[in-house]
Amino acid sequence: MPAAFPFLGETLALLCALFWAFAVILFKKSGETAHPLGLNLFKNLLALVLFIPTLLFFHEPLLPRMPLSDFARFFLSGILGMAIGDTLFFMSLNRIGAGLSAIVGYMYSPLIIALSLFFLKESLTLLQISGIALILAALLLTSQIKVPEKIKRKTLFIGIILGVLSSAATAASIVLIKPLLAKTSLLWATAFRLFAGLIGVIFFILFIPERRRILGSTFTTKGLGYTIGATILGTYIALTVWLGGMKFTQASVAAPLNQLSNIFIFILSALLLKEPINSRRIMAIIIAFTGALLVFIGFQTLF
Question: Which of 161, 195, 236 is nearest to 62 (CA)?
Fold first, then answer.
């Protein structure tokens, strides 16, 4: 982490949670009309189109000098996270809805923490562990497992499995490239993972008989506005700050901060949509941000 910007990684992780909170709502709306593979293709393509002029504006090379093995790791990371992980997430979201998907998505933090401690040899202070535990407890406190009657048991089971696999693919994709991020441009790394994800999704679609229907469902004007908005917030912006959080702090610290997106959803709903917040959610918000504060404080004792 740059000395001139203390808590840069943690701050970026929190910003990712905020932007992703907006994006999930829009992705859910766009998923009502768009096929998961088509939605993934569109978001990766649009975000990559936005990143190319961004790279040129900041004078970033499109093909930096690095070992071929590093290119391969970034490419595989993009396939795992942007092609496989995101498609599985959209498939799960369409089956079980945003509420249940958020609960299943709680596997994201424990998976990244476990992989980071084992493969990256990261360490956590007692304060950070306490903060992470509070964040996860707050998330569980807000969870109300109410399965809509219209969801069949088989659909529910498949949706949960797809959500867990999505979290596992995302976790593996970031742990794979975490050691390389310190010496790699953040913008380039984000754009190249998008490129790899785009190639992966195109490959999947080419071998699916109903590819015309998939593409047609994505480019309909009905949900296109939601898809564009979600892509800008969730892929172009949130993905960049997400990778920045992973770059400038430990993955095991950034991951639980990312999951505050569920808490931000409650706050944004109250502020923008005037939805009521009950005492349980107020308590969860207080606990979650207390946990985030402990994660920040714990960083100082670690370094």
Answer: 195
